Amino acid sequence: MKLLTVIGARPQFIKAATVSRVVSERDDIREVIVHTGQHYDVNMSDIFFDQLSIPRPDHHLGVGGGSHGAMTGRMLEALEIVMSGENPDLVLVYGDTNSTLAGALAAVKLHIPVAHVEAGLRSFNRRMPEEMNRILTDHASDLLFAPTETAMANLRNEGLGDGRARMVGDVMYDASLFYREKARAPDWAGVMRLDERDFILATVHRAENADNPVRLQDILRGLASAGLPVVLPLHPRTRDRIATMDIAIPDGVHVVDPVGYLEMVWLEAHCRLVATDSGGVQKEAYFFGKPCVTLREETEWVELVEAGWNTLTGANPEAIRAAVNAAHAPATAMALYGDGDAAERVLAGILE
């Protein structure tokens, strides 16, 4: 069997690493990895292949930057050429990025079966590009691997529970278990004495926040007002927006370059709490037993809110400050994302 895996962004590198590892243990499967280039910065791309021991891509399309439509269209065109040449038995896509949608569409138009890992997530906010990517990819796919029972219910509600969908757990939970012992502190952590004090780990990159100067400034003000130092590894896109929109960085917010996955794991394990608009980082906070403040009005990971691990604040400075000050880990932990064997379940579903 030949699998063609399409990846392009940081969260997909992490997810794909778990499945690629179990695939590599078999002699009867060949995996062809295609990197679209959606994340092309060294700190957002190359470092992840090195740290996660992902095989180097067989094809690197170099499609990064531009509007959503332009990026997706260029990816679709390039992926069609690669898929026609490779003629895989199955195309595997992850998550909710433009690379995900382009991979699914290219395969469908060539009549190649598609499997979607992390299917069924819904924020019910169709203004989010990621939401439309999820919905369209799920409806185009032949196999749907859901991380939670909530995701399974969403798929059934959309008429997609007809044998295509199965609950496998979350491959990012697999990754957190495998890589936590390999975590390492960023080079600058000692200078900031992060292992000796409480700090907030923050990430901001969603278009709804990064492209809106009022929201972005309010988020930074809210984080700074909570009274704890804030470590903000800044996505290149957000850094560009801060410069062009003349956003002021408040005292107490320490902007650093993006970090690799192993450094991010260390920061998540050592912080007091996480504040983020990232879907993946919300879960990573939970995996490491840290409360999370989500800088959005909704989340696709609703079970974290229901279980008390996550608080939604939007960009309201007062709500952010109050949520940070009140944040605590619930007394009882729940197994929300499977048993750490999601990658094996994905592969079993594909082979079946």
Report low-confidence residues grouped into runs of 5 or more: none
**Rg on CA atoms, Å:** 19 Å
Question: What's the rounded overall pLDDT mean?
Answer: 92
* SS-based class: alpha/beta
The topology string of helices and strands comes to: EHEHEHEHEHEHEHHEHHEHEHEHEHEHH
What best-fitting shape do the alpha-carbon axes yield? globular
Main sheet: strands, sense, barrel:
7 strands, parallel
Q: DSSP helix count?
A: 16
Strand order of the largest sheet: 3-2-1-4-5-6-7
For this structure, the quaternary state is single chain
Number of strands: 13
Strand content: 5-15%
How far apart the termini lie comes to 12 Å
Helix content bin? 40-55%
Top keywords for this entry?
6-stranded parallel β-sheet; alpha/beta; 15% strand; 13 strands; 352 residues; 7-stranded parallel β-sheet
Can you give me a brief rundown of this structure?
The protein is built from 16 helices and 13 strands. It is an alpha/beta fold and 352 residues long.
Report on the structure:
The chain has 352 residues and is of the alpha/beta class. Helices cover 44% and strands 15% of the residues. The chain has 16 helices and 13 strands. The strands form 2 sheets. Strands 3-2-1-4-5-6-7 form a 7-stranded parallel sheet, sandwiched between helices. Helix 3 packs across helix 4. The longest helix is centred in the N-terminal third of the chain and has 19 residues, at 68-86. It starts with a strand and ends with a helix. The model has no long low-confidence stretch (mean pLDDT 92).
